[in-house]
Amino acid sequence: MVEVRLEFLAVFFILTAALSFLFTLASLRLAYRFGIFDRVEERKIHSRKVPRIGGVAIFLSLFSGILIGEVFFHKIVFSRPHNLTVFAVYLFSIMAIFSLGLVDDLKGLNAYQKFPVEFAVALLLYFFGFRIERLSLPWGGAVKLGILAPLITLLWIVGVMNAINIIDGLDGLAAGIALFASISLLILFIIQGRFSFAAVVAGLIGAILGFLPYNLNPAKIFMGDSGSLTIGLILSTLTLKSSQKANLSVSLSVAVIILFIPIFDTLMAIWRRARNGEPLFNADNDHIHHRLLRRLKSHRHASFTLVGISAVFSAIGVALNFVDGLLRFLVVLVSFALGILFFSLMGYFREIPLSWVIPLRRER
Questions:
Q1: Is 237 inside any structural domain?
Q2: Residue 357 maps to a domain
Q3: pLDDT digits (tens, 9 = 90+) for 40-83
Q4: Is residue 132 situated within a structural domain?
Q5: Residue 139: left (phi > 0), alpha (psi -120 to 50), or beta?
Q6: Closest to 160 (Cα-Cα) out of 89, 231, 96, 91
């Protein structure tokens, strides 16, 4: 039976990849016909007009693939029935976030217009089981979150969505990072025997791979907010499920390591703007990909470097599921140390005043 389910995943992957490739080509033609291009701004790396509705192809291929898989294959391959209400709510949530991103791509929305919808969707998913009730500690045991559970869950889902959106600053970067994160999740779900979640991830991998040839430098099309927010929603929810134990505790250390680059870049952006007294939602050109691009002087090399580092972190996230106790804690500790070292090499911590770290004596 396992072989049949693996064959289903392979078929599902090929189906969504083919659909994504074709839908991306159609999106390109549509964008040029109606003049739907990315806004050219001073802070952006690109100075030419590039279509920004690649998210339409990603969404349509994944959504179509899921529906086809549900109607024609699911009952045959998966003998155990699943909760259709949760399934419908999850698809509705993906559609809502995609629609929000598409409106932003076409009309332009600010953070205060997007956040209410994002938090509403996250809250809906929380009530239908996508939640963090206990945090599993790397060295063993778990901490009950109690009344903080809804807040932590909402911050995670909305935070990851926007982290993927923010990291989408170089050709192929967000797609590449999401690809390796998705591959790690697929491996985890297969190991755990959770093939329903594995099917969604296999579809996401196919949707990204079908789009990626058009998005590599020099990009012919961008995924836009409709793509990055949709991918971010799926990754944020499925990282919870992949690291969720039988007692409903979630090991966020695994999820954070898999998505370390976009998450830490977002945290540093928040800290940077707060330190400078700027609005937290103001865009700037000092993200990790901007800094690496200034050092390497090559768009493609900068993108490949960050994707490669993310692939390593994704592999570590998978490896964590095979170790426990002190060894697991040490792997988590070393992983975070290496990640922080990389950001330090990019100059992020040189701007912290010494007095913030070591209290200085005042002269009398």
A1: yes
A2: no
A3: 665 566 667 899 999 999 999 999 988 887 766 665 555 555 67
A4: yes
A5: alpha
A6: 231
